[in-house]
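Hi R.,

Quick one: here's the AfsR/SARP family transcriptional regulator sequence you asked about.
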Amino acid sequence: MIAFHVLGQLEVRAGARDLAPTAPRVKAVLALLALNANRVVSTDTLFAELWDDRPPRSAATTLQTYVYQLRRILDSVPRGERRCEIVTKAPGYELRTGRTDAERFLTLAEQGRCLWRQGHVTEAAERLRQALGLWRGEALADINLGPELTMHKAHLCELRLRVLELRIQADARLGRHQELIPELRSLVAEHRLNERLHAQLIDSLRAAGYRAEALQAYQDLRKVLRTELGLEPTPEVQRLQAEVLNGAHGGSVTALLRTG
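And here's the predicted structure, written out as tokens:
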């Protein structure tokens, strides 16, 4: 059965084989169809992705050629094994398939959020970890992005970050603070203005007994915010710092990190 992967480099997996096209615009068409699996993508949307607001006169014919090339790739797998097809359906094309890693990610993420809301923290952490494990790097990593795919990528990356934040919160609830500290240090370096991640680092350092490092992590955040945005940390983060100073085990971080 063919599986379409977009959470990393584009892959079209048929067993051990990767059937992904190499031509940049053909890859872009396939990526847009895969991200909208089982939904029609209009020709206007595909034109916008491939040529922005300047489609050539031959755009319709060229797009038909790209779709033909994709159909030939799928046809190289026996129909009973591939269970997918690209159909022409007004006002455009539809990739009919049940196997995309993006859809699987969204399903696992929603299951994790539901488990979290129900108080099943261990199960939620595991389900969210499974969702994040589907990512093989940067989404659509090997595709020249037009405006449509750029929006899709931004949306996926934002969802991934929110799932990651919730998984970290679940692990923290389970008392895994010591294990979280290296990961959180890396994340705050990557997402310098994300106060939620900074707050979780401060809280995990405090919970692990590193009071001085927790206070330094707060000062690092304060310096970044003042330098880059001219802002102070939110009141919740300021209360968290006060709790660290006083040796308290309050709940400021819980309010700030409430997710899902």
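The mean pLDDT is 94.

Cheers,
M.
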